[in-house]
């Protein structure tokens, strides 16, 4: 049961204003939640893995990836082996960009149309996992990389 909390703010009571907070102090865990499974998943996502971002020929590309998960940041420089948490690796694996190209060949009538647009999707920061001590890690990463964008 949630108890209402009232705060008496000086000067406002005389004007008939009462502050009431209905939010509970503690959010209860669902009775059917498997806390041990949640803890295992949390531990898995906080394991360190060693990754390396591939260099790029794009002069305008950033020299590093700045990855943030729930306010926890990781900086991964290109061509530098770096240990990051698996939660940051997940973000890195999901960072994709799509570029569009157009076939500029004329059609039968000699016209160039926009009907031949093609999208090309790839990782924003291509990377390699150099070390992952958890045997589940490879299958987990493969699953993420093969999901539809």
Q: Could you characterize the architecture of this molecule?
A:
With 149 residues, this protein is an alpha+beta fold. It has a domain at 46-95 and 125-149. The protein is built from 3 helices and 9 strands, in the order ββαββββαβββα. The strands form 4 sheets. A 3-stranded antiparallel β-sheet has the order 6-3-9. It has a two-stranded antiparallel sheet with strand order 1-2. The chain is extended, with a radius of gyration of 25 Å.
In short:
By secondary structure, the chain is of the alpha+beta class. Helices cover 19% and strands 32% of the residues. The chain has helices at residues 35-45, 86-94, 137-145; strands spanning 5-7, 19-21, 48-53, 64-69, 72-77, 82-85, 96-102, 117-123, 127-131.
State the secondary-structure class.
Answer: alpha+beta
Global Rg = 25 Å
Uncertain runs:
none
What do the pLDDT scores average to?
86
Please state roughly what percent of the residues sit in beta strands, choosing from under 5%, 5-15%, 15-25%, 25-35%, 35-45% or over 45%. 25-35%
Silhouette: extended
Work out the helix count: 3
End-to-end distance: 43 Å
Largest sheet, order of strands side by side?
6-3-9
Order of helices and strands: EEHEEEEHEEEH
- The amount of helix comes to 10-25%
Report the major sheet: 3 strands, antiparallel
Number of strands: 9
